Amino acid sequence: MTEVKRRRRKLKPLEEAKQFAVLKKDKHGLEAKFISDFKGRGVFSCTEFDKGDFLLEYRGDLISKEECERRQSIYHDALKVFLFEFRYNGKLLCVDAARDDGSLGRFVNDDHINPNSRMKTICVDGKPHLCLFATRNISPDDEITYDYGDSEWPWRRTTLCEVESATLEMNTLSKSEVQDKEKVLVVVMFVSVSDPSVLMHSSICAASEGLEKVTPEKDQLPFNDQDSSEKDISPVKVPVLNEEQSFCAPTEAVEEVCKHNVATSAISNVDKCSQCVGPVASMKWFGLRCKLCSCFWHKSCYAKLHEWNGKESLQEVSSEEDELSDEEYIPESESENQSDSSEELQTRPSYDKTKLLSYIQKAASYKSSEAFRSDVPAPNVSKGKGKGVLKAREAACMYEESDLLCNEEQLIDVETDSDSDINGEGHNPRKQGSEVCRSADVLMQSPRSHHEQDSSEKYLNAERAAVLRAEGKQCG
Ligand SMILES: C[S@@+](CC[C@H](N)C(=O)[O-])C[C@H]1O[C@@H](n2cnc3c(N)ncnc32)[C@H](O)[C@@H]1O
């Protein structure tokens, strides 16, 4: 909070205007707000929480280590930050929260000095859920933070020593400039990484060294009693992925892997154009998003990149979007889900429709009953199996948090130690893959009702997930 308040005083008018605009609010007294271009969004309390209270779940697809690595290789850097790797029962797993499902867990920032919460795993039906609990009393307006672990995260490099060496290297700043704390941040960003957006590129490798086991009151848990099976997990010592793997994401590699399938989209200002890494000022901007790899571009940048005649396609998008230029500032602060209109373009540079269709068909032909919650009916599953996938997801989205059940003794610290295998279980990717994919859909619930969510966006998300599954062959 201190940093936030300090930064707030020095903000320019536009920054000031967009800072702390509420982006999302949940019903449990938390909300996501934009903090700064440097830190992005964060989660803030809008009520009192007591030490030990459950705060939120880090929701997303529960995937295997192999699938995590695969997604890392195709994801845009801005999405990699949502891959949360942890060790559970001797297995390396990952929760991928890249898809914005409306939940707030994906926006919680790191604080290794004075965090106010801690991540634990809660076992439900043998599947881990990452849940955040308050480690001290939290007041309204406090930012919720936890310790991402003992990696050298770039944003932690704000010591004077680093700044001084940065100054020497750059040989451009005077001593007095370095003493300005506001500039210190910029210097560190500039020296630590050549591209500031790389700050958003690291996977979260959760560490929980020295964490004690916590047993909260039953009513503090997001789940009710069911299927108690306590897991003992050793603490983390090494991050699962080293920085090189986590931070290395050349655009060229993404280009090679993905035959982009772009759609016009309202894009959050923390997501930058893959080509020019802009814009820096808009709250939201209109551009193109690849539905497969989730790269973003200005239309003009994309056109240049692919020698594509953007104008031709622009005629085919909705008139509402025609009125907006690429970098146009959109003053309203709103939930991304609400505003993310994804209208597919008719003309695409390298879109292989047959291939995409075959991916979706492959995905649909998986045992869908296994791939989704067994207790979630898939109403009106008719015609194409692809549609069935969508319906099942919609049904899953209707479930509330309280529909998931868990015993209080199922609470376990999150750890990412790759050395230990407590239960002596061998790593079985295939079995694990099918297990985790089913579980992934348990986790894919939205706190909003399915009526509130834009159905076309949900379809696109389901489609993208189907493509990812088909490519990964993890859910067979
Ligand atoms: C899971 S995301 C958290 C939400 C993120 N702020 C956003 O707006 O999407 C992790 C990313 O947030 C940023 N972040 C987290 N903690 C931070 C901190 N203490 N200072 C600056 N940036 C931070 C980093 O870019 C990191 O890669």
TrEMBL record:
PANTHER family cross-referenced by the UniProt entry: N-LYSINE METHYLTRANSFERASE KMT5A
Residue spans of biased composition, Basic and acidic residues class: 449-460
Family matches, as InterPro entries: C1-like_sf, KMT5A, PKC_DAG/PE, SET_dom, SET_dom_sf
Comp. bias (Acidic residues): 318-343
PROSITE patterns linked: SET, ZF_DAG_PE_2
Keywords: Metal-binding, Zinc
GO cellular component, one term: polytene chromosome
Glycosyltransferase in keyword set: no
Gene3D superfamilies: SET domain
Pfam families: SET
Region (Disordered): 314-349, 415-460
Domain of life: Eukaryota
Positions of the Phorbol-ester/DAG-type domain: 259-309
Molecular function terms from GO: histone H4K20 methyltransferase activity; metal ion binding
Start and end residues of each SET domain: 28-149
GO biological process: regulation of DNA damage response, signal transduction by p53 class mediator; regulation of transcription by RNA polymerase II
Protein name in the entry: SET domain-containing protein
Nucleotide-binding found in the keyword field: no
